[in-house]
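Researcher: Structure for this, please.
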Amino acid sequence: MSTEEKPAAPRSLAEALRARDDASLSALLRSRPDLITPVPTDLTQLATRAGTRASVLRALERLDRFALQTAEALAVAPDPASYDSLLGLLAGDARDRAVTAALPRAVATLREQALVWGDDDRLRLVRTARELLAPSPQHPSPTGLGPSVQEATSGMSPGRMQEIVTTAGLPSTHDSVSAVAALTELFTDRKRMAGLLAGASEASREVLSRLMWGPPYGQVTAEPAAHLRWLLDHGLLLPTAPGTVVLPREVALHLREGRAHRTPEPLPPAVEPAAVHAARMVDATAAGQAYTALATVEELLKDWDEGGPAVLRAGGLSVRDLKRTAVALDVPEPVAVFWVELAYAAGLLASDGEADERYAATPAYDDWLERPAAERWGHLAETWLTVTRTPGVVGGRDAKDRALSALGPGLDRSAAPEVRHRVLTLLAGLPVGTAPSAESVLARLRWERPPRGPRPGDEEDLRSRLARWTLSEAELLGITGRGALSAQGRALLGAPAPAPADPAQPTHPAQPTGPGDKLPVHHHHHHHHPTPADPPAEPLSAAEQTTATAAAARLLAPLLPEPLDHVLLQADLTAVAPGPLRRPLAAMLGVLADVESKGGATVYRFTPASVRRALDVGRTAADLHSFLAAHSRTPVPQPLTYLIDDVARKHGHLRIGAASAYVRCDDDALLNEILADKRAATLRLRRLAPTVLAAQADPGTLLEGLRAMGYAPAAESAEGDVLITRPDAHRTPPRTAPEPVPDGPPPPDSTLLTAAIRAIRAGDLAATTPRKSADTPLTGGELPRTGPAETLATMQAAVLTGESLWIGYVNAEGSASQRVIAPIRVEGGFVTAYDHTADEVRTYPLHRVTGVAELADD
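Model: Predicted structure, token format:
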């Protein structure tokens, strides 16, 4: 027989945490990062913070369905509860095997997150969680169970208790406590309870079955019917208030065969395949959509090049401007919102901040345009994966019933990045080329994070809507193709490329086996699905995401169409671009011609106005002829040559200058023609000389007026030279992209965790045990005290060794505190150090440090 004594059972959560090792504390702080913001001074403070209502509610909301069901069962179990009694509540009398197998994991999760503490024979749910989950008339239990017999009879008269005990066939007792105990023992004895219920009428059993799964409360009249009177007399229904009765918890559990939940859900629902495609087809489809995404963002910002829509007074885009943008992009309005918001989140679009505030491209957009296409896509994809702004909520209402507009405030949903990552991770877990059923993805997410808001039949919960938007937005961006995750999408998650399948042993997605289930499969001979490699379970850090994005861009690059350096000129004054054009060619063609249609091939049309536009930006007829000859795979048609020469011959024949404005022309007959034209009346022209007309309009208005009349005037400088006016694109001042709004503090990295745990343990030891000191040992709670010279020497030594120190510090108000710091620099009477307690770098005057002590070795 061993002589080792078994450690005493912890008497509090703080004691339970004190018994944990560093790995266990790290797991707790990683799963509940709000507990180290700021770093607690010791384990007692950590336990207190872990029991606060806000923190516990946050932790409960992050439990999967079975872990939550386990917590709910503990909330209605005796406190403390044994593991066996908890298993009975979840697995029922039949001891469901799946529940039995899954329960250890659920209890371990609750323990890890400090929601449950104690050994298996004394499991305790933290009090705050019990209050949040336990039943009351105001807040019915999620299990549908009512109060226990003891709770329901707390205000009942002793005489009434004796009547119930006697009617139930139990011997009368001398006090209410023993009467309650006898009644509870009866209701929890399966055999005796079955005998009691055998005497109930059909109507009585019907009442019990209606209340069995909750809500457990019912209404009765002052003179209840016989079948209700029988239930009341036997204590199977107990009065809680005048006219209200409740089904005691023990009775409900007997009727449920011991189960706390109607349907325990120990296993997550599988993500079901909806279709299977060849991997090459998925990647090609996704790449085509990625190219379309780039073209759409470019088209949007080109449309806003000279200043986009006005900014609403409350911020955002007006409904009219959104409709106009959707028409310009030829997409539905919700899709237009997505592209506008993505460009904004990526820092390519912002408000110019001027008096008549408008949206415009940022300088970052010009830098983005110069990058290779795959890198530009990577920037958009990474932005989408991490941004909290959520285009899908546009058109809804905020908490104050104000409309939510594109680019406006109130669009951040902090859960969006986590949901996007989780949805893509679920897709990555399927065989390559497999598109999932959207409903099965939603069902899986609801199991992983059960919604606490809307119930079935109500409006869909936010996480489910975020998941639906994720599936459609990933397709728009080319992260998925035909609903399946592409190779670049997998790389974006940081997952390694899947290993090629063994041709001898092909793997296939699981096929449905239920009646009537059919899986649409695209059959490809000799095609095998590689086994996917697991992506990281948690979102990547910023540095890791940058690396993953670069890898995704490298995979996408060879799949994007190569830009062309030529067009096909047609005799009907059109040019056909059979694919994407190189940027200089596309830019020049966009000035010289108007886009007539888009699609696989873009059709440009040459018109007198478009040719004049090219001449206005400084091109000559010879420039245009040589440009078209150099970039056309077909001969330049004569009609196009004639058009350019004809417009060029007239271009600049009239000269506009400042008088306030004048028209100069060597052909006085042409000036006579203008003066005689009724359309020139608004310009208020008069002849100054045979070749000069003066106008009371400014040069810009005069230019536009004469062009509207069909002439082709050119502006000139004060020296008489032709002014070349290139329309400069309007840009905002430098702008930073909007920062994501986090869902609480971010998960701590390993460096912060190590420092935090060391600080917490140091503070705990400082509060409970003596410390090493150069002079006298310190008792709990005292500040360390050393002389100034020793304090300075110890600080300087710690800078060299990188060790942390325990100090006493008195602030300017005279308030004393203990701190754990890692000195970085000591100079000029100050110490700059990383303060583990505050989780930040701070500077302290050395004269306010009472003393310093080394941390004791753990």
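Researcher: Any notable elements?
Model: Residues 454-458, 500-531, 770-780 have pLDDT under 50 and may be disordered. The chain has 33 helices and 25 strands.
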